[in-house]
Every structure is written in C-alpha cells, then in structure tokens.
Amino acid sequence: MCGIMGYVGSKPALPVVLKGLRQLEYRGYDSAGIAIADKDRISVLKCKGKVADLENLVKRENFPGSTALGHTRWATHGEPSTPNAHPHIDCSGKIAIVHNGIIENHAPLRKLLEAEGHTFRSDTDTEVFSHLVEKFYRGDILLAVQEALTLIEGAYAFAVICQDEPDKIVAARRESPLVIGVGNGNEGEYIIASDLVAIVEHTRQAIHLDDGEIGVFQPSGHRIIDKANMKVEKDVESITWSLDKITKGGFPHYMLKEIFEQPETIYDTMRGRILKEKAQIKLGGLEDLIKLPSAEKTTTGLSHLLNSKRIVIIGCGTSWHASLVGEYLFENMLGIPVEVEYASEARYRNFIVDKDTTVIGISQSGETADTLAALREAKRRGAATLGLVNVVGSSIARETHCGVYLHAGPEIGVASTKAFTSQVCLLALMALLIGREKHVITDQRAGTIIQRLLEIPSQVEEILKKSSLIRDMAQRYAGFSNFLYLGRGYNFPIALEGALKLKEISYIHAEGYPAAEMKHGPIALIDENMPVIFIATDTEDQTYQKVISNIEEVKSRHGQVIIIASEGNESIYDVADTVITIPETEYCLTPLLTVIPLQLFAYHMAMLKGYDPDQPRNLAKSVTVE
Ligand code: F6R
User: What's the gap in Å between 317 CA and the centre of ligand 1?
Assistant: First the structure.
C-alpha cells in the first residue's frame, strides 16, 4: 500500500521518479506527489488523483535536480486530498519525506510536536515524522532520521531528503517493503522503491533492506546500519526476470494479460520440479535446514513437514482461497490434519502451534502485513514456518524458515489471478511430494496426477479461447446486481474466489458458498433476479448429484443458472441457462481450470460497466497495513 520511489545520482531525477510512480501505481492511486532537491531549495508538487494528474502538474515546471522522492498514496489516515498527499515537509520546508505504513502513535507525537511549536499542514499520521526529523536535525540527516525512528511505533518504509545535504537519500524500513536499485557501473546512482518493478529498467542489481535497517545513499556510495547501530554489508542481488514481464504486452490491462499468461506461469511453477520418469517431485526450497529452538536437532524443511502432526495454512484474500484448496489436497491425498486460518485472525488469538506444527504462509506479494505477523507469531511459538510466495526476496520469503517460490513473474493487476493458479499448482506439487515420501501415493497414481498436471497449461489455453463467449455471457448478466457462487469439495474455494473477483473489480455484490449450505439460508435470496453460478465438474464425485439437486432447487425458484461443467457432460444442458465447459482433468486439479472462466467473467463484467480492473476503487495490490 502506497508506492515510494526515489532517485539520487547524476541524471535529472524527475523523469525517473515519475516513471517509477507509474509503475508503482497499482499500490495506491488516490493522490501522488514528488519532492526534488537542489542546492537552493526542495520543491514539492502534489495533488489528489492519479500519477497522470501529477504529471500534468509537473509539466509546467522545470526541475533539474538529481535527487528526488515520489509517492503514490493509498489513504489510511486522512482523506485523499492534496494536503494529505506525500511528500510531507517539516516547518522549514528543508526536509521532505515519503512513507508507506502506519505510525500508530501519531496522535501523542503530534500533540508533543504541536506543543513545541511545529505547524502541521495535513491530517496524516505521516507528517509527524517530518517534524520529528526536523526536531533532531543538527547537520546530519542520517542521525536525525535515526533519532526520530526511536520514537515511532508501527510499520514503515521511509525515504527522506534534506535541502542542506541535497545529494543524499536516507531510507529506513520496518514491516513495509523497500528495495534499493544499485546503479550499473560507475554511474553512482541509487533507485529507492517499494517494488522491484520500478527498478528493473534502470539496473539489475538490488539491495533488500531488512527490518530495522536504515541506509544513506548518495552518488559516492552507500552505508547501511542495522538495529544495533552496526554497519552492515548487504548482498547486492541480481534481478533475473525480463522487462517484458512488467509491460502490458499489447493487452489493454495487466489483469487480462495476467489471466492470459496462466498457461505459461503454471508451467513455470512446475518447471524443473517434476521428475516425470520417476513420478517424483523436487522442491529445492524445502531442502533448506531448519533448527527450531525447541527441537533437539537440525532438520530439513521437508523432514519437518513429513513429521509434523498438524499443518496450518494461512493467507489473506485470494491466497486464503488457495490455502483452502491446499486443505482439500493435503487431507484427501495425504490424510494429514490441516487447518486453514485467516492470517488476520490467527495473529491475534491464542494461535496454538508448536514445534510439531508446520505453518505454511501463502502470499503473492510476500509483504501482506497480517500474513507476515501471523508467521512471526507462529515462529515465536516454536512452529516451523514455510513460505509460498511469488515475490523473490520479499519479507515472508526471507523471514520464514524455508519456502518455495511460485515463479509466476510479477503480478501487477490488483486482482490476483496468475498467482492463484500458481499457488494451487504448487500446493498440488507439495501434496505429491509429501505423498511420495510418506508412501501414501502409489507410483501409478502419482504418474497419473503428474501427467494431468502437465496437461493443465494447454487446457487453460483452451479455456482462454472462450473469452469472447464469456464476454457475451457477461453481457447477458450485466443488468443483475447480485450473484451467488456455489461449489463443493475442491471447487468450494473456487466459488469464493469467483465471487471475490466479481466484487472487487465489477463492484457487483456476490457471495460464495459451499453448495450444500444454500438451503441453510441463502436460498431465501433466490428469485428471478439472482443468477447462481454453479461449479459442477466432476460427475464421478459423491457430491455431484447433490449439486444437481441444488441446481433444481434454484430453478424451481426461478433463479438463473450458470454452470461451469466438464466437456462431454451433455445432460448438464438440461438444467442450465448458460454452460461454460472446461476440459476434463483429475478432480483435485479442477480448481486450476474452473477459476479461469470466473476470472474472465469478472474482467468482462468490469469492462461492460466501464471500470478499470487494474485500479479498482479503494483497493491496493499489496496490503502492508492492518
Ligand atoms: C484479491 C487479492 C487480494 C490478495 C490478498 C493477499 O484479488 O488480490 O485478496 O490475495 O490481499 O495478498 P498476498 O497474496 O500478496 O498476500
């Protein structure tokens, strides 16, 4: 939430920062601003609205400075408005800061600073920090920031510039992401950003700041200091993915591009991890060593997982839906007890986990505040933690005992699509791996599932060809303002996910339920104005006939019935108003296919209503605040 961008070097900073802000806009888009330092002054321009509005504002001015900060905001404290937009300055206008996170003790700090004579210009929590830095500034901006941070409670990524030291950016982080791009060769430049996507165009070298670290970056070099006030030498990591991953590649929206990328991204999740001849799975990240304080000896992530008495999977939103698919996969295929928790709930209750538990955190961004905090709590309570994340080097990737990357490439569309299918695919690989190690899945069964998994990318491609059919279907149903999504077993989480996609980008009210729950309440809503989307693919499953009965119940109450069914199921046409078919696969893998038409349905619905699916109202991609 909120995008931070900064540049210090020898080039004019403004174009670099503006372009970076555009790339970070998925993180927040209710207001934007920049601050540029040169010898004589710090110039600040900001406005309510999008980065494009800021660009219009900036066009009229000429700023040659080579040090600048930028920010694109997702409001937490203080409504979206020009005064509340970042950067915020101190009373003298010599210090400018941008912030991502929440300063929890902003109210007492503000009182204290106002009593000392500081004048505030905004309603934000952030502004206290610019005044605190001013309070402690005695000619060294790094020291002033360090001192100011000792008073801050909450989460933050900060970047700070100062007119008296115009060739420096000071950056600090705690629980909000911040990466530093290190300029190529002798250019002596640094790019400070909330996400690598804003950096890759300039450099392939990056430093990930860890919690509690603070750094000063200037053309002559950098210095990073840790929590204990000791200088740290950080590894400069290489960014491996290519630039085309962060462009729209000819698609009108990132969301559509990412939906269409799924044949490739699902394949990438499997690539190098399947030993087909032996019907075996290899996940290198699980071979990392784990030493829990309460355990006698060091073990690998995989051995811990195999010996765990319980597995708890946590996540938020779409990642929580993937966790639910994981529960079905692990319990059905392996017989291991699994609980799925909302990370936000787990972190604040008596979260009972111990050294015999493996807690799996699922997160696209690897930065979701609740998931990170719940994983930390699990670790504190002695459990082994395992991260399934997409963003390489993210906080969850670094803080868990071990983990496996999704390899889905950057996901920029605010609504998660390709990360979801990669999460489900990875959970299926994990289930196979554990099942093979525990000898509960036979060679033949593993071989069949692996074969079916390898077919998934081309089957997704088949479904994507139906995009215009699904657009027609969206057109037919565009006048309805409520939808019910129902599924059972492996496709109950897909009902939840389909409903979430429709809500978040089309602003249409939708609810997902296990189909059998309909008669315990939601059936009261059914009439001719309530379309119901059923996911009913597996005719062999014991619940299939029961779902058909639910469909009849809806029809007899004049509800419209849309069914996601398997190809070849001719009888389904007798009970449906609209049918979308998916190719046939193993029941446990159907979520990888059934979710695709629902993603497309939500996208086309948003298009028909004239909404921008890449920037849905009130949402931001990475939820780094509570
Ligand atoms: C929905 C969506 C969100 C995220 C959730 C968790 O389309 O994108 O519900 O799934 O905020 O985010 P990550 O996976 O980054 O932890």
Answer: 5
